[in-house]
Amino acid sequence: MVKSIGESRPTRWSAGNLVMVINGILVGVGGVFLATASVLVTVVAAVAAVLLAALIVLVHR
Fold first, then answer.
1. Pairwise CA distance, residues 2 & 4, whole Å
2. Domain spans of the chain?
3. Tens-place pLDDT, residues 14-25
4. pTM for this predicted structure
5. Distance CA 21, CA 52 (A)
6. Which helix (H) or strand (E) holds 57?
7. pLDDT above 60: residue 1
8. What is the distance between the alpha carbons of residues 50 and 26, in angstroms, rounded to a whole number?
9. HEC readout, 21-35
10. Using CA atoms, how far apart are residues 45 and 32, in angstroms rounded to an integer?
């Protein structure tokens, strides 16, 4: 099978990709807490990060 120039290969979702998403959540939420020192803002950032991660996982499923 010959691929055309514009055709891209399908992306594969793996456990490593999931670990990268989770690490990104942890680093992002930790960074928000260090930057703001506010628990409320950190909780909001954590909820947003989990929702975004769930969306990423569902899209690449």
1. 7
2. 15-59
3. 888 889 989 999
4. 0.71
5. 10
6. helix 39-59
7. no
8. 10
9. HHHHHHHHHHHHHHH
10. 7
